[in-house]
Amino acid sequence: MAYKETYPSQLLSNAVEAISSLPGVGRRSALRLALHLLKQPADSVHHFTGAINDLRDGVCYCRRCRMISDSEECAICSDMKRDHSVICVVESVRDVMSIEATGQYHGVYHVLGGIISPIAGVGPGDLTISELVARVAAGEASEVILALIGDVEGETTAFYIYRQIESYGVKVTSLARGLGFGDALEYADSLTLGRSITNRQLFKP
Amino acid sequence: MAYKETYPSQLLSNAVEAISSLPGVGRRSALRLALHLLKQPADSVHHFTGAINDLRDGVCYCRRCRMISDSEECAICSDMKRDHSVICVVESVRDVMSIEATGQYHGVYHVLGGIISPIAGVGPGDLTISELVARVAAGEASEVILALIGDVEGETTAFYIYRQIESYGVKVTSLARGLGFGDALEYADSLTLGRSITNRQLFKP
Prior knowledge:
2 copies of one chain form a homodimer. Chain A has helices at about 10-20, 25-40, 40-60, 95-100, 130-135, 150-165, 190-200; strands spanning about 60, 70, 85-90, 105-110, 145, 170-175. Chain A is α/β, with parallel strands linked by helices. In chain A, strands 4-3-5-6 form a 4-stranded parallel β-sheet. A two-stranded antiparallel ribbon of chain A has the order 1-2. Chain A starts with 9 loop residues before the first helix and ends in a 7-residue tail after the last helix.
């Protein structure tokens, strides 16, 4: 829909411009958010912007796994109850949070900070792959789980990492792929369904 | 979906908390936005938060129509080419922008800053109705257009304002209601369609 953009105030225009730079936020939503913030007490707005500045300026990354952390070593890496011999390699901080939310994993992580993508201009050097290789070379792990997205870029990244670490004699695994819990066969895409059949498992009643 | 929220960093948790206080932004979106901001250069993030702080701290409201403005009198009120004898009464800044975008209106505005809503606890005293009455009482206008939303609260507000200004002998009008441009009859709600019939106009070929 065409919408002539004449803002009644330069300050409003600047704020809308800034807010609409966020991913998934259009100019109309940005205007709505700007006018919302304008209605809040000044203290609330300063608290809002302060929390964002504090995050950007104060955040640390774990020197071991590159996870976001408030200190030099993250809570997971400094937890001696976890199995430090299993490293789960993920794309992002969110993936760590998702896996942690399952409560099913007790090893440690390595956050790549992205995925190899020629289209997006992300090469192996932009990721923390050399740090991962160093961890493996130091004999830190007996198993590396490649928990990456199941598309071409994810598999390319997984393969690249595999080639880098295979010589160290570490066990390399990847996530099980197949139908999701509760998924109906008729709605599954054929690639997923095909893999589910190929990688079928012994029925354990 | 249940999502166990354990943030790897207090700073991240604070930022997510702040961002999810925005209307329409859930905690998952807030996390996505926080991690996006974290990936941006520090300068960009400071520019982002600065634009919001500047808006909140620096914005003015036009002393005449209460529109957002960078100065004491807004661009519309200080435009001598516009018809200052017609005042269009709207709920919000966004309504002014929407009407301006049509290019069909050449009068001035009055921004109420809300609508009378007993449920939301908004009474006439919370709006700029007395300022509007003062403008009418000063003989500023020959016509007042009540351009408010066509629901119970909008009509209540319109009626309240009408009662306040009718004694000044000003012409009071409201927006035409009916089918939208290009609307099919079969999809119109019966209230809108009913009004469209009642307020039918002479066909001008």
